[in-house]
């Protein structure tokens, strides 16, 4: 048993406390020094980040990312837990492919992690949730929703309707034409279409507009936005590095989203980390969609807090608390019974994001030269794993599975 002392974020404010940890779990929180060894954590201490939407490519496309580099990237940016998507080269649709993926990951993860299954006719009991593709994206999966078997867990939806995408197909050689080829209407039609299936625990991923968010929320869905849809638009001078599904929208839609980060319609800010190599991205027309973001998610949003674009309460709710609640894992809070995942932040130390400094195998970022606030220290279940941007322990992440209720 050990204790940590510092200014911890609890119930909406920072409080000077002693947090007692036993076997990686918070067992007590005290005002006075406990009778055990104490480690002081400098700065302001937040819960570890929870990113419920990443694509670490492992197994099958290890030249782009693997679980070691993806998880190292995550932990270096203050994210201690990820949930990885199933559109691998061999899709994760059943127990056999799920176990094969888990075996490939082995003990190489620096973060705790859950794995989704692609919704299918087979249940994978250990999956953190199920992924639904209403439109084809990287990997080409398309879900026949009416033929699937469902668990009482989160159902994450890639919300672009395939019929709408096909009706808008066109020559695709810029961010503007990519937006036109998968317009906002495809997103809105997908949200409406998903409602007709009357499923529970539906989570609409990477929504790109305030209109979409409010519509999804009105239908009882939980919602997600990404830093790239918040901070980038189709006018950005990044060419195919910004090619992603759903697309970056025009500036007015992006700025409306940025100006409404406090909206109750937003539950989660996730990265949708989906790296490709620079060679893959050379020619816009042929470039696969997706961009890296797991390491920059927390730093970008904390920087946005410092700029007055989002409250700290909303930032922590959307990056730590709500994703943990939706995925039913004991993360996201500094409270008794939760895992002792902490990140130490100095809000006055604002740096510039550089692709060469990040840990993803792909080696680039669409947020080059953006401001970010990176964690000084990162603890996973009470163990110091990152100090001043460098890993100081071996990979110790564990597999998580969500429980049905």
Count of helical regions: 10
The amount of helix comes to: 10-25%
At the fold tier of CATH, the topology name is TIM Barrel
- Counted up, domains total 1
List unreliable stretches of 5+ residues.
none
Spatial separation of the terminal alpha carbons: 31 Å
Describe this structure in words.
This protein has 405 residues and is an alpha/beta fold. The chain has one domain (48-332): Alpha-Beta Barrel (TIM Barrel). Helix content is 23%, strand content 23%. The chain has 10 helices and 18 strands. The protein has helices spanning 67-76, 95-105, 162-167, 175-181, 184-195, 210-218, 227-231, 251-258, 297-306, 312-327; strands spanning 2-10, 13-22, 25-30, 38-47, 49-54, 79-84, 112-118, 129-133, 154-158, 202-204, 222-225, 268-269, 342-345, 351-352, 371-372, 377-380, 383-387, 390-391. An 8-stranded mixed β-sheet has the order 3-2-1-4-13-16-17-18. Strands 5-6-7-8-9-10-11-12 form an 8-stranded parallel β-sheet. It has a two-stranded antiparallel ribbon with strand order 14-15.
Task: Please provide a brief summary of the model.
By secondary structure, the chain is α/β, with parallel strands linked by helices.
Descriptive key words:
alpha/beta; eight-stranded mixed β-sheet; 23% strand
Layout of strands and helices, then pairs:
Layout: E1 2-10, E2 13-22, E3 25-30, E4 38-47, E5 49-54, H1 67-76, E6 79-84, H2 95-105, E7 112-118, E8 129-133, E9 154-158, H3 162-167, H4 175-181, H5 184-195, E10 202-204, H6 210-218, E11 222-225, H7 227-231, H8 251-258, E12 268-269, H9 297-306, H10 312-327, E13 342-345, E14 351-352, E15 371-372, E16 377-380, E17 383-387, E18 390-391
Parallel strand pairs: 1-4, 5-6, 6-7, 7-8, 8-9, 9-10, 10-11, 11-12
Antiparallel strand pairs: 1-2, 2-3, 4-13, 13-16, 14-15, 16-17, 17-18
Helix pairs in contact: 5-6
């Amino acid at each position: 048993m050990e204790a940590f002392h510092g200014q911890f974020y609890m119930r909406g404010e920072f409080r000077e406390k002693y947090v007692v940890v036993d076997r990686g779990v918070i067992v007590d929180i005290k005002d006075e020094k406990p009778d055990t060894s104490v480690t002081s954590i400098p700065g302001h201490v937040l819960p570890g980040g929870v990113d419920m939407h990443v694509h670490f490519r492992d197994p099958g496309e290890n030249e782009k990312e693997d679980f070691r580099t993806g998880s190292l990237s995550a932990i270096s940016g203050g994210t201690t837990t990820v949930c990885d998507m199933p559109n691998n080269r061999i899709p994760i649709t059943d127990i056999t492919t799920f176990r094969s993926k888990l075996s490939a990951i082995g003990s190489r993860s620096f973060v705790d992690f859950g794995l989704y299954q692609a919704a299918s006719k087979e249940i994978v009991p250990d999956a953190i949730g199920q992924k639904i593709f209403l439109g084809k994206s990287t990997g080409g999966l398309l879900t026949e929703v009416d033929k699937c078997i469902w668990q009482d867990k989160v159902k994450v939806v890639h919300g672009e309707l395939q019929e709408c995408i096909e009706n808008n197909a066109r020559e695709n050689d810029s961010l503007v034409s990519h937006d036109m080829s998968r317009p906002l209407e495809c997103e809105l039609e997908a949200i409406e279409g998903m409602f007709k299936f009357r499923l529970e625990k539906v989570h609409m991923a990477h929504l790109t507009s305030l209109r979409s968010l409010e519509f999804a929320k009105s239908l009882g869905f939980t919602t997600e936005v990404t830093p790239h849809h918040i901070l980038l638009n189709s006018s950005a001078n990044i060419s195919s590095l910004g090619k992603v599904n759903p697309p970056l929208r025009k500036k007015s839609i992006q700025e409306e989203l940025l100006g409404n980060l406090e909206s109750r319609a937003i539950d989660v800010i996730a990265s949708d980390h989906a790296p490709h190599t620079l060679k893959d991205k050379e020619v816009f027309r042929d470039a696969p969609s997706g961009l890296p973001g797991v390491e920059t998610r927390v730093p970008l949003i904390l920087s946005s807090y410092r700029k007055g674009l989002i409250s700290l309460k909303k930032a922590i709710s959307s990056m730590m608390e709500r994703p943990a609640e939706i995925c039913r894992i004991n993360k996201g809070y500094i409270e008794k019974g939760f895992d002792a995942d902490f990140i130490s932040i100095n809000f006055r130390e604002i740096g510039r994001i550089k692709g060469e400094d990040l840990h993803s195998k792909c080696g680039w970022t669409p947020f080059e030269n953006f401001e970010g606030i990176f964690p000084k220290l990162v603890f996973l279940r009470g163990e110091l794993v990152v100090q001043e941007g460098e890993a100081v322990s071996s990979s110790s992440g564990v597999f998580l599975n969500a429980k049905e209720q």
